[in-house]
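Example 3.2
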Amino acid sequence: MTRTLITGGLVITASDELHADVLVEGGRVVAMATHGSHGWTADRVIDATRKYVIPGGVDAHTHMEMPFGGTLASDTFETGTLAAAWGGTTTIVDFAIQPRGGSLVEGLDAWHEKADGKCAVDYAFHMIMSDVNESSLKEMDALVSAGVTSFKLFTAYPGVFLSDDGQILRAMQRAASNGGLVMTHAENGLAIDVLVEQALARGERDPRHHGEVRKALLEAEATHRVIRLSQVAGAPLYVVHVSAQEAVAELARARDEGLPVFGETCPQYLFLSTDNLAEPGFEGAKYVCSTPLRPVEHQAALWRGLRTNDLQVVSTDHCPFCFKGQKELGRGDFSKIPNGMPGVENRMDLLHQAVVDGHISRRRWIEIACAAPARMFGLYPKKGTIAPGADADIVVYDPHAKQVMSARTHHMNVDYSAYEGKRVTGRVETVLSRGVPVIAGRTHVGHAGHGCYVPRGIGEYAG
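Structure, written as C-alpha coordinates:
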Protein backbone atom coordinates (compact mmCIF):
# COMPACT_ATOMS: atom_id res chain seq x y z
CA MET A 1 0.00 0.00 0.00
CA THR A 2 1.49 3.32 -1.11
CA ARG A 3 2.21 5.91 1.57
CA THR A 4 2.41 9.51 0.47
CA LEU A 5 3.86 12.34 2.53
CA ILE A 6 3.06 15.94 1.61
CA THR A 7 5.59 18.08 3.39
CA GLY A 8 6.43 21.74 3.95
CA GLY A 9 3.13 23.34 2.91
CA LEU A 10 0.53 25.57 4.51
CA VAL A 11 -2.56 23.40 5.06
CA ILE A 12 -5.72 25.46 4.60
CA THR A 13 -9.17 24.17 5.52
CA ALA A 14 -12.42 26.03 6.18
CA SER A 15 -11.53 26.25 9.86
CA ASP A 16 -7.72 26.33 10.09
CA GLU A 17 -4.45 27.38 8.52
CA LEU A 18 -1.44 25.48 9.81
CA HIS A 19 2.06 24.63 8.66
CA ALA A 20 1.81 20.86 8.71
CA ASP A 21 2.85 17.68 6.97
CA VAL A 22 0.10 15.35 5.75
CA LEU A 23 0.46 11.55 5.67
CA VAL A 24 -1.72 9.61 3.24
CA GLU A 25 -2.25 5.85 3.19
CA GLY A 26 -4.95 3.62 1.72
CA GLY A 27 -6.61 6.53 -0.05
CA ARG A 28 -7.18 8.49 3.16
CA VAL A 29 -5.48 11.06 5.31
CA VAL A 30 -4.07 9.10 8.26
CA ALA A 31 -2.13 11.75 10.19
CA MET A 32 -1.01 15.38 10.30
CA ALA A 33 1.87 16.84 12.27
CA THR A 34 4.07 19.91 12.52
CA HIS A 35 6.91 20.03 10.01
CA GLY A 36 9.86 17.96 11.12
CA SER A 37 8.23 16.68 14.31
CA HIS A 38 7.41 13.12 13.26
CA GLY A 39 10.07 11.09 11.41
CA TRP A 40 7.51 9.57 9.00
CA THR A 41 8.72 7.68 5.94
CA ALA A 42 6.77 7.30 2.71
CA ASP A 43 7.01 5.77 -0.76
CA ARG A 44 6.17 9.13 -2.33
CA VAL A 45 7.16 12.51 -0.92
CA ILE A 46 5.59 15.69 -2.34
CA ASP A 47 7.42 18.90 -1.47
CA ALA A 48 4.85 21.66 -0.90
CA THR A 49 7.25 24.32 0.37
CA ARG A 50 5.85 27.83 -0.26
CA LYS A 51 2.64 26.20 -1.52
CA TYR A 52 -0.84 25.71 -0.11
CA VAL A 53 -2.15 22.22 0.66
CA ILE A 54 -5.92 22.39 0.28
CA PRO A 55 -8.85 19.97 0.02
CA GLY A 56 -9.91 19.05 -3.49
CA GLY A 57 -12.75 21.26 -4.66
CA VAL A 58 -16.35 20.03 -4.56
CA ASP A 59 -18.36 21.39 -7.51
CA ALA A 60 -21.97 20.69 -6.56
CA HIS A 61 -23.51 21.86 -9.85
CA THR A 62 -22.36 20.45 -13.20
CA HIS A 63 -24.10 19.24 -16.35
CA MET A 64 -21.94 16.82 -18.34
CA GLU A 65 -23.51 15.55 -21.59
CA MET A 66 -26.76 17.35 -20.76
CA PRO A 67 -29.37 17.51 -23.52
CA PHE A 68 -30.60 21.07 -24.07
CA GLY A 69 -32.29 22.83 -26.97
CA GLY A 70 -31.71 20.04 -29.46
CA THR A 71 -28.02 19.57 -28.64
CA LEU A 72 -25.79 18.12 -25.89
CA ALA A 73 -23.39 19.81 -23.48
CA SER A 74 -19.97 19.38 -25.11
CA ASP A 75 -18.10 17.93 -22.11
CA THR A 76 -18.49 14.20 -21.52
CA PHE A 77 -17.98 12.76 -18.07
CA GLU A 78 -14.49 11.79 -19.22
CA THR A 79 -13.43 15.22 -20.55
CA GLY A 80 -15.33 17.19 -17.92
CA THR A 81 -13.94 15.38 -14.90
CA LEU A 82 -10.41 15.59 -16.28
CA ALA A 83 -10.85 19.34 -16.73
CA ALA A 84 -12.20 19.49 -13.16
CA ALA A 85 -9.04 17.78 -11.91
CA TRP A 86 -6.81 20.23 -13.81
CA GLY A 87 -8.68 22.99 -11.98
CA GLY A 88 -8.30 21.44 -8.53
CA THR A 89 -11.80 19.98 -8.23
CA THR A 90 -11.87 16.34 -7.13
CA THR A 91 -15.62 15.74 -6.73
CA ILE A 92 -18.51 16.83 -8.93
CA VAL A 93 -22.22 16.46 -8.27
CA ASP A 94 -23.99 16.24 -11.63
CA PHE A 95 -27.71 16.23 -12.42
CA ALA A 96 -29.52 13.12 -13.57
CA ILE A 97 -32.75 13.99 -15.38
CA GLN A 98 -36.09 12.25 -15.00
CA PRO A 99 -37.53 11.80 -18.50
CA ARG A 100 -40.96 13.39 -18.97
CA GLY A 101 -43.45 10.58 -18.38
CA GLY A 102 -40.71 8.31 -17.03
CA SER A 103 -39.45 7.44 -13.56
CA LEU A 104 -36.70 8.92 -11.41
CA VAL A 105 -34.84 5.61 -11.46
CA GLU A 106 -34.93 5.53 -15.25
CA GLY A 107 -33.24 8.93 -15.33
CA LEU A 108 -30.70 7.96 -12.69
CA ASP A 109 -29.81 4.74 -14.54
CA ALA A 110 -29.24 6.69 -17.76
CA TRP A 111 -26.77 9.02 -16.01
CA HIS A 112 -24.98 6.14 -14.33
CA GLU A 113 -24.50 4.64 -17.77
CA LYS A 114 -23.00 7.90 -19.09
CA ALA A 115 -20.55 8.21 -16.19
CA ASP A 116 -19.63 4.67 -15.16
CA GLY A 117 -15.97 3.86 -15.80
CA LYS A 118 -15.27 7.20 -17.47
CA CYS A 119 -14.59 9.72 -14.71
CA ALA A 120 -11.15 11.01 -13.71
CA VAL A 121 -12.37 12.08 -10.25
CA ASP A 122 -15.22 11.08 -7.94
CA TYR A 123 -18.81 11.97 -8.74
CA ALA A 124 -22.33 11.93 -7.31
CA PHE A 125 -25.79 12.80 -8.60
CA HIS A 126 -28.68 15.10 -7.83
CA MET A 127 -32.07 14.26 -9.41
CA ILE A 128 -33.96 16.68 -11.65
CA MET A 129 -37.69 16.07 -11.24
CA SER A 130 -39.39 17.04 -14.47
CA ASP A 131 -42.63 15.16 -13.81
CA VAL A 132 -43.90 15.43 -10.22
CA ASN A 133 -46.70 12.92 -9.61
CA GLU A 134 -47.71 10.30 -7.03
CA SER A 135 -45.28 7.77 -8.48
CA SER A 136 -42.23 10.06 -8.62
CA LEU A 137 -42.98 11.42 -5.13
CA LYS A 138 -42.87 7.86 -3.75
CA GLU A 139 -39.60 7.23 -5.59
CA MET A 140 -37.96 10.12 -3.74
CA ASP A 141 -37.82 8.00 -0.55
CA ALA A 142 -36.00 5.17 -2.33
CA LEU A 143 -33.50 7.55 -3.92
CA VAL A 144 -32.68 9.15 -0.55
CA SER A 145 -32.03 5.65 0.86
CA ALA A 146 -29.77 4.92 -2.14
CA GLY A 147 -27.63 8.05 -1.65
CA VAL A 148 -29.29 10.51 -4.03
CA THR A 149 -30.44 12.97 -1.40
CA SER A 150 -31.24 16.16 -3.35
CA PHE A 151 -33.92 16.96 -5.91
CA LYS A 152 -34.01 19.88 -8.32
CA LEU A 153 -37.22 21.58 -9.38
CA PHE A 154 -37.72 24.46 -11.79
CA THR A 155 -39.98 27.48 -11.81
CA ALA A 156 -38.51 28.12 -15.29
CA TYR A 157 -38.60 26.46 -18.76
CA PRO A 158 -42.34 25.84 -19.29
CA GLY A 159 -43.00 22.65 -21.25
CA VAL A 160 -39.55 21.25 -20.44
CA PHE A 161 -38.76 21.36 -16.70
CA LEU A 162 -41.27 23.72 -15.10
CA SER A 163 -43.21 22.46 -12.10
CA ASP A 164 -46.18 24.42 -10.79
CA ASP A 165 -46.38 25.65 -7.20
CA GLY A 166 -48.49 22.67 -6.13
CA GLN A 167 -45.97 20.18 -7.51
CA ILE A 168 -43.08 22.04 -5.87
CA LEU A 169 -44.95 22.07 -2.54
CA ARG A 170 -45.63 18.32 -2.75
CA ALA A 171 -41.96 17.58 -3.47
CA MET A 172 -40.90 19.81 -0.56
CA GLN A 173 -43.33 18.05 1.78
CA ARG A 174 -41.87 14.70 0.74
CA ALA A 175 -38.34 16.00 1.30
CA ALA A 176 -39.37 17.25 4.75
CA SER A 177 -40.33 13.69 5.67
CA ASN A 178 -37.40 11.78 4.09
CA GLY A 179 -34.50 14.16 4.80
CA GLY A 180 -33.92 15.14 1.18
CA LEU A 181 -33.02 18.64 0.05
CA VAL A 182 -35.02 20.46 -2.62
CA MET A 183 -32.96 22.66 -4.94
CA THR A 184 -34.72 25.20 -7.13
CA HIS A 185 -33.96 27.10 -10.29
CA ALA A 186 -35.89 30.23 -9.32
CA GLU A 187 -37.04 32.38 -12.25
CA ASN A 188 -40.62 33.06 -13.31
CA GLY A 189 -40.54 31.09 -16.56
CA LEU A 190 -44.11 31.82 -17.62
CA ALA A 191 -43.58 35.58 -17.37
CA ILE A 192 -40.17 35.34 -19.06
CA ASP A 193 -41.75 33.54 -22.03
CA VAL A 194 -44.14 36.47 -22.50
CA LEU A 195 -41.20 38.91 -22.49
CA VAL A 196 -39.24 36.72 -24.94
CA GLU A 197 -42.17 36.65 -27.35
CA GLN A 198 -42.61 40.43 -27.13
CA ALA A 199 -38.87 41.11 -27.60
CA LEU A 200 -38.69 38.92 -30.71
CA ALA A 201 -41.81 40.62 -32.12
CA ARG A 202 -40.00 43.98 -31.72
CA GLY A 203 -37.03 42.59 -33.65
CA GLU A 204 -34.79 42.36 -30.57
CA ARG A 205 -32.83 39.24 -31.49
CA ASP A 206 -29.24 39.69 -30.27
CA PRO A 207 -27.70 37.78 -27.32
CA ARG A 208 -27.90 40.83 -25.02
CA HIS A 209 -31.70 40.58 -25.06
CA HIS A 210 -31.42 37.21 -23.27
CA GLY A 211 -30.36 39.12 -20.16
CA GLU A 212 -32.94 41.86 -20.64
CA VAL A 213 -35.99 39.57 -20.74
CA ARG A 214 -34.89 37.37 -17.82
CA LYS A 215 -35.40 40.22 -15.41
CA ALA A 216 -33.83 40.35 -11.96
CA LEU A 217 -37.29 41.02 -10.48
CA LEU A 218 -38.53 37.72 -11.93
CA GLU A 219 -35.62 35.91 -10.25
CA ALA A 220 -36.45 37.68 -6.98
CA GLU A 221 -40.18 36.89 -7.27
CA ALA A 222 -39.56 33.18 -7.85
CA THR A 223 -36.96 33.09 -5.06
CA HIS A 224 -39.48 34.63 -2.65
CA ARG A 225 -42.15 32.16 -3.78
CA VAL A 226 -40.06 29.01 -3.32
CA ILE A 227 -38.85 30.26 0.07
CA ARG A 228 -42.44 30.62 1.25
CA LEU A 229 -43.42 27.23 -0.21
CA SER A 230 -40.51 25.63 1.67
CA GLN A 231 -41.64 27.38 4.85
CA VAL A 232 -45.16 25.97 4.41
CA ALA A 233 -43.69 22.49 3.81
CA GLY A 234 -41.28 22.74 6.75
CA ALA A 235 -38.40 21.78 4.44
CA PRO A 236 -34.91 23.17 3.87
CA LEU A 237 -34.32 24.89 0.52
CA TYR A 238 -31.25 25.44 -1.67
CA VAL A 239 -31.55 28.04 -4.45
CA VAL A 240 -29.12 27.42 -7.31
CA HIS A 241 -27.15 29.98 -9.37
CA VAL A 242 -28.30 33.15 -7.60
CA SER A 243 -27.34 36.09 -9.81
CA ALA A 244 -29.42 39.14 -8.80
CA GLN A 245 -29.03 41.40 -5.78
CA GLU A 246 -32.84 41.34 -5.32
CA ALA A 247 -32.74 37.53 -5.03
CA VAL A 248 -29.89 37.73 -2.48
CA ALA A 249 -32.09 40.12 -0.47
CA GLU A 250 -34.90 37.53 -0.41
CA LEU A 251 -32.49 34.86 0.88
CA ALA A 252 -31.02 37.21 3.49
CA ARG A 253 -34.50 38.14 4.74
CA ALA A 254 -35.51 34.48 5.06
CA ARG A 255 -32.29 33.59 6.86
CA ASP A 256 -32.80 36.52 9.23
CA GLU A 257 -36.15 34.92 10.06
CA GLY A 258 -34.26 31.74 10.97
CA LEU A 259 -35.40 29.69 7.97
CA PRO A 260 -33.16 26.85 6.69
CA VAL A 261 -32.68 28.51 3.31
CA PHE A 262 -29.41 28.39 1.40
CA GLY A 263 -28.01 29.95 -1.76
CA GLU A 264 -25.36 29.23 -4.35
CA THR A 265 -23.79 31.60 -6.81
CA CYS A 266 -21.32 30.93 -9.64
CA PRO A 267 -18.06 32.51 -10.87
CA GLN A 268 -19.74 33.92 -14.00
CA TYR A 269 -21.96 36.16 -11.85
CA LEU A 270 -18.99 37.28 -9.76
CA PHE A 271 -16.62 38.06 -12.64
CA LEU A 272 -18.76 38.67 -15.77
CA SER A 273 -21.72 40.93 -16.53
CA THR A 274 -24.19 42.11 -19.17
CA ASP A 275 -21.22 43.90 -20.76
CA ASN A 276 -20.14 40.44 -21.95
CA LEU A 277 -23.61 39.60 -23.29
CA ALA A 278 -23.45 42.87 -25.26
CA GLU A 279 -20.11 42.06 -26.95
CA PRO A 280 -20.27 42.95 -30.66
CA GLY A 281 -21.46 40.62 -33.38
CA PHE A 282 -22.64 37.31 -31.99
CA GLU A 283 -19.85 37.07 -29.38
CA GLY A 284 -22.32 37.66 -26.57
CA ALA A 285 -23.79 34.19 -27.22
CA LYS A 286 -20.79 32.72 -25.40
CA TYR A 287 -22.16 34.19 -22.18
CA VAL A 288 -25.80 33.08 -22.48
CA CYS A 289 -26.77 31.11 -19.37
CA SER A 290 -29.77 31.07 -17.05
CA THR A 291 -30.10 32.77 -14.66
CA PRO A 292 -28.43 35.37 -16.89
CA LEU A 293 -25.45 37.60 -16.31
CA ARG A 294 -26.49 40.83 -14.60
CA PRO A 295 -25.28 44.44 -14.76
CA VAL A 296 -21.94 44.79 -12.99
CA GLU A 297 -23.43 46.51 -9.92
CA HIS A 298 -25.02 43.20 -8.84
CA GLN A 299 -21.56 41.74 -8.16
CA ALA A 300 -21.08 43.72 -4.95
CA ALA A 301 -24.22 42.16 -3.44
CA LEU A 302 -23.04 38.67 -4.35
CA TRP A 303 -19.60 39.19 -2.79
CA ARG A 304 -21.24 40.65 0.29
CA GLY A 305 -23.59 37.63 0.47
CA LEU A 306 -20.58 35.30 0.36
CA ARG A 307 -18.86 37.23 3.16
CA THR A 308 -21.98 37.36 5.38
CA ASN A 309 -22.91 33.72 4.65
CA ASP A 310 -26.24 34.63 3.07
CA LEU A 311 -24.73 32.72 0.13
CA GLN A 312 -22.92 29.57 1.23
CA VAL A 313 -21.60 27.89 -1.93
CA VAL A 314 -19.90 28.74 -5.22
CA SER A 315 -20.51 26.08 -7.87
CA THR A 316 -20.09 26.44 -11.63
CA ASP A 317 -23.31 25.28 -13.33
CA HIS A 318 -20.78 23.97 -15.86
CA CYS A 319 -22.82 23.31 -19.01
CA PRO A 320 -20.62 24.04 -22.03
CA PHE A 321 -21.73 24.43 -25.63
CA CYS A 322 -19.26 25.17 -28.41
CA PHE A 323 -19.52 28.58 -30.03
CA LYS A 324 -19.31 27.04 -33.49
CA GLY A 325 -22.23 24.80 -34.31
CA GLN A 326 -23.96 24.95 -30.91
CA LYS A 327 -24.25 28.55 -29.65
CA GLU A 328 -24.74 29.42 -33.34
CA LEU A 329 -28.11 27.66 -33.27
CA GLY A 330 -29.40 30.98 -31.89
CA ARG A 331 -28.07 33.32 -34.59
CA GLY A 332 -30.92 35.70 -35.30
CA ASP A 333 -32.97 34.46 -32.31
CA PHE A 334 -31.45 34.74 -28.82
CA SER A 335 -34.11 32.37 -27.42
CA LYS A 336 -32.56 29.49 -29.39
CA ILE A 337 -29.02 29.93 -28.00
CA PRO A 338 -28.26 26.89 -25.79
CA ASN A 339 -28.17 28.12 -22.18
CA GLY A 340 -24.90 27.29 -20.47
CA MET A 341 -21.24 28.15 -19.99
CA PRO A 342 -17.98 26.30 -19.30
CA GLY A 343 -16.27 26.82 -15.94
CA VAL A 344 -15.47 23.62 -14.03
CA GLU A 345 -11.73 24.12 -14.63
CA ASN A 346 -11.69 27.82 -13.66
CA ARG A 347 -13.59 27.96 -10.36
CA MET A 348 -10.81 27.32 -7.82
CA ASP A 349 -8.42 29.74 -9.58
CA LEU A 350 -11.01 32.50 -9.91
CA LEU A 351 -11.91 32.20 -6.25
CA HIS A 352 -8.22 32.32 -5.29
CA GLN A 353 -8.02 35.52 -7.33
CA ALA A 354 -10.89 36.77 -5.16
CA VAL A 355 -8.64 36.12 -2.14
CA VAL A 356 -5.83 38.07 -3.83
CA ASP A 357 -8.27 40.90 -4.61
CA GLY A 358 -9.49 41.04 -1.00
CA HIS A 359 -13.10 39.89 -1.57
CA ILE A 360 -12.79 36.82 0.68
CA SER A 361 -10.29 35.22 3.05
CA ARG A 362 -8.29 32.06 2.32
CA ARG A 363 -10.40 29.99 4.70
CA ARG A 364 -13.61 31.35 3.18
CA TRP A 365 -12.27 30.29 -0.25
CA ILE A 366 -12.05 26.72 1.02
CA GLU A 367 -15.40 27.00 2.82
CA ILE A 368 -17.43 28.05 -0.25
CA ALA A 369 -15.59 25.82 -2.75
CA CYS A 370 -14.95 22.64 -0.72
CA ALA A 371 -16.40 22.31 2.79
CA ALA A 372 -19.83 23.95 2.50
CA PRO A 373 -20.87 22.07 -0.66
CA ALA A 374 -19.64 18.82 0.90
CA ARG A 375 -21.65 19.49 4.08
CA MET A 376 -24.72 20.70 2.22
CA PHE A 377 -24.90 17.59 0.07
CA GLY A 378 -23.97 14.81 2.49
CA LEU A 379 -20.32 14.31 1.49
CA TYR A 380 -18.59 15.74 4.57
CA PRO A 381 -16.15 14.91 6.18
CA LYS A 382 -15.22 12.31 3.57
CA LYS A 383 -14.89 15.21 1.11
CA GLY A 384 -14.26 18.92 1.57
CA THR A 385 -11.56 18.91 4.26
CA ILE A 386 -8.10 17.62 5.16
CA ALA A 387 -8.32 15.65 8.40
CA PRO A 388 -7.51 12.13 9.59
CA GLY A 389 -10.10 9.78 8.09
CA ALA A 390 -11.04 12.05 5.19
CA ASP A 391 -10.51 10.91 1.62
CA ALA A 392 -7.08 12.04 0.44
CA ASP A 393 -8.51 14.44 -2.15
CA ILE A 394 -5.72 16.98 -1.87
CA VAL A 395 -4.45 19.81 -4.06
CA VAL A 396 -0.98 21.33 -3.85
CA TYR A 397 -1.64 24.90 -4.96
CA ASP A 398 0.97 27.47 -5.94
CA PRO A 399 -0.37 30.84 -4.77
CA HIS A 400 2.44 32.74 -6.52
CA ALA A 401 2.17 31.31 -10.06
CA LYS A 402 0.75 33.61 -12.72
CA GLN A 403 -1.48 32.36 -15.52
CA VAL A 404 -3.60 33.68 -18.35
CA MET A 405 -6.89 31.87 -18.87
CA SER A 406 -7.46 30.80 -22.46
CA ALA A 407 -9.24 28.24 -24.62
CA ARG A 408 -5.81 27.42 -26.05
CA THR A 409 -4.64 26.00 -22.74
CA HIS A 410 -7.77 24.79 -20.94
CA HIS A 411 -8.85 21.14 -20.91
CA MET A 412 -12.62 21.57 -21.15
CA ASN A 413 -14.05 20.22 -24.41
CA VAL A 414 -15.28 23.58 -25.65
CA ASP A 415 -13.92 26.00 -28.25
CA TYR A 416 -13.89 29.18 -26.16
CA SER A 417 -13.10 30.39 -22.67
CA ALA A 418 -15.54 32.65 -20.85
CA TYR A 419 -12.45 34.22 -19.24
CA GLU A 420 -10.23 34.51 -22.33
CA GLY A 421 -7.17 36.63 -21.56
CA LYS A 422 -7.93 37.04 -17.84
CA ARG A 423 -4.76 37.15 -15.75
CA VAL A 424 -4.92 35.43 -12.39
CA THR A 425 -2.47 34.63 -9.62
CA GLY A 426 -2.44 31.05 -8.35
CA ARG A 427 -2.42 27.68 -10.08
CA VAL A 428 -2.96 24.01 -9.33
CA GLU A 429 0.29 22.07 -9.28
CA THR A 430 -0.53 18.56 -8.04
CA VAL A 431 -3.85 16.80 -7.46
CA LEU A 432 -4.48 13.61 -5.50
CA SER A 433 -7.83 11.83 -5.74
CA ARG A 434 -8.21 9.32 -2.91
CA GLY A 435 -4.42 9.42 -2.57
CA VAL A 436 -3.77 8.66 -6.25
CA PRO A 437 -2.04 11.36 -8.33
CA VAL A 438 -4.19 12.66 -11.17
CA ILE A 439 -2.09 15.76 -11.87
CA ALA A 440 1.57 15.72 -10.81
CA GLY A 441 3.67 18.85 -11.27
CA ARG A 442 1.33 20.15 -14.01
CA THR A 443 1.38 16.79 -15.85
CA HIS A 444 -1.66 14.55 -16.25
CA VAL A 445 -0.88 11.13 -14.76
CA GLY A 446 -4.41 9.88 -14.05
CA HIS A 447 -6.86 7.89 -16.14
CA ALA A 448 -10.53 7.69 -17.01
CA GLY A 449 -12.31 5.28 -14.69
CA HIS A 450 -10.34 6.16 -11.54
CA GLY A 451 -13.27 8.27 -10.34
CA CYS A 452 -15.86 6.43 -8.23
CA TYR A 453 -19.55 7.05 -7.74
CA VAL A 454 -20.14 8.36 -4.21
CA PRO A 455 -23.55 7.77 -2.58
CA ARG A 456 -24.39 10.76 -0.38
CA GLY A 457 -25.81 11.07 3.10
CA ILE A 458 -28.35 13.60 4.36
CA GLY A 459 -26.98 17.14 4.18
CA GLU A 460 -25.86 18.96 7.31
CA TYR A 461 -27.19 22.33 6.06
CA ALA A 462 -24.48 24.09 8.02
CA GLY A 463 -24.64 27.86 8.16
